[in-house]
Specification:
Tyrosyl-Transfer RNA Synthetase; Rossmann fold; binds iron/sulfur cluster; 7% strand; two-stranded parallel ribbon; 324 residues; 2 domains; 56% helix
Length: 324
């Protein structure tokens, strides 16, 4: 089986965008690939953060991924900073990466705008560490959202540059991007994000989910209940397509275009389905949080497994580079 790698930021509670856009698809691929998932804490420190909260954030990311269905019997889960070879390989990749390639990265430009007071070298170098994350484990398949495709193409160039300079070492990875449309935040303006406070957390109660959806932005041209809407431009409809039954999606699609249903009716159906989808995940997450040792043991086992791969890759890299 091909090896698959993906990472999740320990950004506190995971949100419905993380789940529908990434983790649910990872779970569907568990039997088709040799899967490695990483809690990317070194990436998380490229923006300001609370030191005392980080350990809990790492734990939550791992526990909630497991609760969503990342079965440690069928995949490996570990923490990036537990394997120092990630940063060692990133340094080596820095030496085959042109500065101009990094300056063109869309994510760097966006984050530099968002974090004007802290545009650090780590933020600039983020794609190089991401390439190291993937290639250290010689992964080929990388499931990512549309906004990360540029970074995976960058990783391909890094692999190619290293192989050309030092001999065939790394596979050139490719992205797997599900065609699910972009999951926007509740403000309808940008991607769902914890830092922008426009999200529904996987741990939100039924009441919180209903009230957050009630205020979520819809088709902005549908100002009155009697106005027909366009579901194709509405984030609520995007979420329906991921959570509702075929008959409900058809009902919403027709009802919206004909003004047969109002947005509140539409959101009530979505809320019902979202709550039902999250209920077993929340139950499993509660169990894991009551028994944290189970999660730490999974991360320790992941570290042991991935360290073997990492040490072997770095031995090969150093040899090919004349460093041994
Ligand atoms: S009816 Fe539903 S799909 Fe149509 S605009 Fe309102 S919330 Fe969006």
């Amino acid at each position: 089986m091909k090896r698959l790698f993906s990472g999740i930021q320990p950004s506190g509670d995971l949100h419905i965008g993380n789940y529908l856009g990434a983790i649910r698809n990872w779970v569907r691929m568990l039997d088709d690939y040799q899967c490695i998932f990483c809690v990317v804490d070194y990436h998380a420190i490229t923006v300001d953060y609370q030191v005392e909260a980080m350990r809990q954030r790492i734990f939550n990311a791992a526990a909630e991924c497991m609760a969503c269905g990342l079965d440690p019997g069928r995949c490996v889960i570990f923490v990036q900073s537990h394997i120092p070879e990630h940063t060692e390989l990133a340094w080596i990749f820095n030496t085959v990466t042109p500065m101009g390639d990094l300056g063109r990265m869309t994510q760097f430009k966006e984050k530099s705008e968002q974090h004007k007071h802290n545009v650090n070298v780590g933020l600039f170098d983020y794609p190089v560490l991401q390439a190291a994350d993937i290639l250290l484990h010689k992964a080929e398949a990388v499931p990512v959202g549309e906004d990360q495709i540029q970074h995976i193409e960058f990783s391909r160039r890094v692999a190619h540059a290293f192989n050309s300079r030092y001999g065939e070492t790394f596979p050139e990875p490719y992205h797997i991007t599900p065609k699910i449309g972009r999951i926007m935040g509740l403000d309808g303006k940008t991607k769902m994000s914890k830092s922008l406070n426009n999200y529904i957390s996987l741990s939100d109660s039924a009441e919180t989910i209903r009230s957050k959806l009630a205020t979520a932005v819809t088709d902005v041209n549908r100002k009155r209940r009697s106005d027909p809407g366009n579901p194709e431009v509405c984030n609520i409809y995007t979420l329906h397509r991921l959570l509702s039954s075929d008959s409900e999606i058809e009902y919403v699609n027709t009802g919206c275009r004909t003004a047969g249903i109002g947005c509140l009716d539409c959101k009530a159906i979505l809320a019902k389905n979202m709550i039902a989808e999250l209920e077993p995940i929340q139950q499993k997450a509660r169990e894991l949080k009551e028994h944290p040792q189970r999660v730490w043991e999974v991360l320790e086992a992941g570290k042991q497994t991935c360290s073997l791969i990492a040490v072997e890759t770095m031995r090969e890299v150093r040899t090919k580079m004349g460093l041994r």
